[in-house]
């Protein structure tokens, strides 16, 4: 530090004043330098990468959106209203409509209504749990389902339209079913050339099927003399008989009589039809077997 030239100073007071001026000047210069240095060192924004911040916010937004979408999909059944739906399982000679409907959280289903059409003609309407149908031929089918909740609210109709062609097309409706054992004759028939014929010791047996719930047998019957006959229906599961129904029906001799037999049954994979008490031939034609479980 250069001090004042004392050779030109005559009074001590002037020397003191010069020293004060120098130190005061140095003090302000140092303060200014320190302030600028502190500003540089302590400034937060000087060390922040703006591009990194933008990318971090974008990633956070994407993560939150993905988690929200996942939550909505997992909680769909709880957040949506009453919803009717079903899936279709096609088999060789039949199709099965499985109810997959649901109600929102805190409620439950109490009823349903099925409607089934083939080529725009009504085939079935009812409240079965599921629907198992074996059509007699190919066609375009439309199934409609509505469900009801505990508050008596009905869902919007849910419908699907689909094509179905049986795996094996029969020349006669009796041959539509792949009978394991049956006496098929061409002597007497209502439609087509053939019908099932029964004597006291004959049985029409059908295996490899899937029937459950309300099983419907619809057919036409006749004989060579009008009389009462006992019709026996037996259902089997894995070789064990699980249901047997015997029904007294009148069999005419001059015309075909339409018969519908309803059987409530657990799951069966084989069935047998017989007339064990008859003493003369009985004929069945236009047989249809379905279940609405």
Please tell me about this protein's structure.
The radius of gyration is 45 Å and the shape is rod-shaped. Strand 6 and strand 7 (158-164) form a beta hairpin. It has three helices and 15 strands. Strands 8, 9, 10, 11, 12, 13, 14 and 15 form an eight-stranded antiparallel beta sheet that branches. It folds into three domains: 6-74; 80-164, Immunoglobulin-like (Sandwich); 173-292, Galactose-binding domain-like (Jelly Rolls, Sandwich), CATH 2.60.120.260. With 293 residues, the chain is of the alpha+beta class. The chain is 20% helix and 44% strand.
Features:
293 residues; alpha+beta; Immunoglobulin-like; 3 domains; eight-stranded antiparallel β-sheet; four-stranded antiparallel β-sheet; 15 strands; 44% strand
Give the secondary structure arrangement, pairings included:
Elements: H1 12-42, H2 50-74, H3 76-79, E1 86-90, E2 95-99, E3 109-118, E4 121-126, E5 131-133, E6 139-149, E7 158-164, E8 179-181, E9 184-185, E10 195-198, E11 203-223, E12 227-237, E13 240-251, E14 257-274, E15 282-292
Antiparallel strand pairs: 1-2, 2-5, 3-4, 3-6, 6-7, 8-11, 9-10, 10-15, 11-14, 11-15, 12-13, 12-14
Name of the top-level CATH class of the largest domain? Mainly Beta
Shape: rod-shaped
SSE pattern, N- to C-terminal: HHHEEEEEEEEEEEEEEE
CATH architecture type of the largest domain: Sandwich
Largest sheet: 8 strands, antiparallel
Task: Determine the CATH topology of the largest domain.
Answer: Jelly Rolls
Main structural class: alpha+beta
Q: How large a portion of the residues is in β-strands, by DSSP E? A: 35-45%
* Arithmetic mean of pLDDT: 81
Total strands: the figure is 15
**Radius of gyration, whole Å:** 45 Å
CATH homology superfamily of the largest domain: Galactose-binding domain-like
